[in-house]
């Protein structure tokens, strides 16, 4: 384009010059070797321009003829190079598609058309061909040659890194990643790999420095970089919490500025503030986290913020959390636990059942079993709640790569990935039928709660209460007569777990009888424990209803 523009400018300049001469006519006279030549100025200018053009044409023609051998050789060399690049392109595509035969054929053709010293992609084609053919040693040697060449250093290091990861040589993979990150910090794979390895070894300062460099080079997006830096700061604060609470507090608060929903950072910051007796600021951090998303660890730390509080004080703090997020199952469970410790058993049962209706899970039914043990200590009802715990989904936990941890960790123990742990329901092998955690499931469990069974031993009757004279005659007397047993059970109402007492008379155990001689004795008459005395069906020996009396089991 620039050359065309230059030609246009030259033509315009010539046209403007001839127009200028045409407006200013003149005569030109030349005497050379006795000859006088006269012509107009315009003709002289035209002849001069033509002479210059002819000289240029002659020079161009001589140059073309002189350089024609080189031009011809260059033409064939360019043609050969184009064929070599075509073979290289076809070979790379074949290697990527897994066609080892075509890749090997194109490799041989490329070697005949191109020089490996001039085109480093030939090494890549050879390495990829060796990989798909299973010749891993040859491929590794090619990658090492590429790593020693400054032009292909990054490509060779990446190939060596992937091969080390495939073989499980984590230490070698770490060294390749560190080398690539030091030489080229703009490479995302090298930066992330080195960041993970430094995090696995607990080099938090080095990891933060590398992350800042990659963020400056725009290798990692700003949002992702902020999240990873918050995780690294939280990990460093966790290590400082016991020895340097102030430094742990600063790191945790800096992490919260980058990621406001990072629960572990908020917990560490609150713990550090509580150790400094700054309860108000620590509680404010926990309340902010609680408003965003309730978490059991936040509730536990908030309720037990002050070690000297009584159970009643902890219950008050749990009620405050529930007021911040009403009708939340985690808040209801926190109140139920605090009420159980304060021995407010009706409140604990009501809150736990409400949480079970909203979100039934394993933990809430285990809590109901603890409440049942403290309230009734009935084995049947305790087993009922524990059975419901087995049938319902597991509680959320810190999970990463299929592994759960009782506490948050910055790095996955399986893959070594940074920020891998998430608060979610863990995935486990299903051994049997698991009921869906629906509200009607909790209602059915509450309605099917077995009644409280209490067995009372009836006291031995006293002979002085009632005696009658019996004539001397053969009688049948029960030997070693066992006392009657009265069993009191509680029947649940249709929709609520309310205990309705009923009294049922147990059948007496059969005992052997023996015949005794007739003699004058006094037989003891047992008190009546069948139906209440005011029952119209109860009559005495003369077939008359008994008088109403006060009936007591004890």
What's the short version?
Helix 15 runs antiparallel to helix 16 (329-341).
Could you explain how this protein is built, in words?
It is built from 20 helices and twelve strands. The strands form five sheets. The protein has a three-stranded antiparallel sheet with strand order 4-3-5, with no helix packed on it. Helix 4 packs antiparallel against helix 5. It starts with a helix and ends in a 30-residue tail after the last strand. The C terminus is likely disordered.
Q: How does the SSE layout of this entry go?
A:
Blueprint: H1 2-23, E1 27-32, E2 35-40, H2 41-97, H3 100-113, H4 121-132, H5 136-148, H6 153-167, H7 170-183, H8 188-200, H9 204-216, H10 222-240, H11 245-258, H12 263-275, H13 279-292, H14 296-303, H15 311-324, H16 329-341, H17 345-358, H18 362-375, H19 379-391, E3 397-400, E4 403-405, E5 422-424, H20 439-447, E6 453-457, E7 467-470, E8 475-478, E9 485-492, E10 499-505, E11 513-516, E12 521-524
Antiparallel strand pairs: 1-2, 3-4, 3-5, 6-9, 7-12, 8-11, 9-10
Helix pairs in contact: 2-3, 2-4, 3-4, 4-5, 5-6, 6-7, 7-8, 8-9, 9-10, 10-11, 10-12, 11-12, 12-13, 13-14, 14-16, 15-16, 16-17, 16-18, 17-18, 17-20, 18-19
């Amino acid at each position: 384009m620039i050359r065309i523009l230059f030609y246009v400018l030259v033509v315009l300049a010539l046209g403007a010059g001839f127009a200028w001469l045409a407006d200013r006519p003149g005569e030109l006279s030349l005497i050379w070797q006795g000859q006088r030549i006269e012509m107009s100025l315009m003709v002289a200018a035209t002849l001069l321009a033509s002479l210059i053009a002819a000289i240029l044409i002659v020079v161009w023609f001589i140059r073309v003829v002189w350089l024609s051998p080189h031009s011809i050789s260059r033409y064939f060399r360019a043609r050969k190079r184009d064929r070599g690049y075509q073979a290289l392109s076809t070979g790379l595509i074949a290697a990527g598609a897994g066609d080892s035969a075509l890749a090997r054929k194109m490799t041989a053709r490329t070697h005949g058309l191109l020089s490996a010293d001039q085109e480093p992609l030939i090494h890549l084609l050879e390495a990829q061909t060796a990989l798909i053919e299973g010749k891993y040693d040859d491929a590794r040697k090619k990658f090492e040659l590429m790593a020693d060449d400054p032009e292909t250093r990054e490509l060779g290091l990446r190939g060596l890194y992937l091969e080390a990861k495939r073989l499980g040589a984590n230490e070698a993979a770490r060294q390749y990643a560190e080398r690539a990150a030091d030489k080229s910090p703009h490479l995302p794979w090298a930066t992330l790999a080195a960041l993970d390895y430094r995090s696995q070894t607990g080099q938090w300062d080095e990891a933060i420095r590398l992350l800042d460099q990659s963020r400056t080079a725009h290798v990692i997006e700003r949002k992702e970089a902020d999240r990873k830096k918050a995780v690294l700061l939280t990990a460093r604060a966790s290590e400082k919490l016991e020895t340097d609470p102030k430094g742990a507090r600063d790191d945790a608060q800096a992490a919260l500025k980058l990621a406001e929903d990072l629960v572990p950072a908020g917990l560490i910051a609150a713990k550090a503030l509580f150790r400094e007796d700054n309860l108000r600021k620590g509680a404010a951090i926990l309340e902010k986290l609680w408003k965003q998303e309730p978490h059991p660890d936040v509730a536990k730390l908030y309720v037990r913020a002050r070690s000297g509080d009584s159970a009643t004080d902890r219950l008050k703090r749990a009620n405050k959390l529930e007021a911040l997020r009403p009708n939340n199952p985690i808040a209801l469970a926190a109140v139920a636990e605090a009420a159980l410790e304060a021995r407010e058993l009706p409140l604990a049962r009501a809150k736990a059942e409400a949480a079970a209706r909203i979100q039934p899970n394993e933990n809430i039914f285990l809590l109901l079993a603890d409440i049942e043990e403290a309230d009734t200590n009935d084995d049947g009802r305790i087993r009922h709640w524990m059975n419901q715990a087995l049938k319902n989904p597991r509680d959320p936990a810190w999970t990463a790569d299929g592994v759960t941890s009782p506490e948050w960790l910055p790095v996955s123990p399986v893959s070594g990935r940074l920020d891998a742990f998430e608060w979610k329901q863990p995935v486990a092998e299903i051994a049997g039928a698991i009921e869906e955690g629906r509200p009607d499931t909790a209602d059915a469990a509450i309605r099917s709660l077995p009644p409280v069974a209490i067995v009372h031993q009836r006291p031995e009757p006293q002979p002085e209460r009632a005696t009658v004279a019996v004539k001397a005659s053969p009688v049948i007397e029960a030997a070693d007569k066992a006392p009657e047993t009265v069993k009191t059970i509680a029947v649940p109402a249709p929709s609520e777990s309310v205990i309705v007492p009923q009294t049922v008379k147990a059948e007496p155990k059969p005992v052997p009888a023996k015949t005794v001689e007739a003699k004058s004795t006094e037989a003891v008459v047992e008190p009546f424990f069948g139906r209440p005395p005011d029952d119209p069906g109860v009559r005495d020996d003369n077939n008359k209803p008994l008088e109403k009396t006060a009936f007591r089991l004890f």
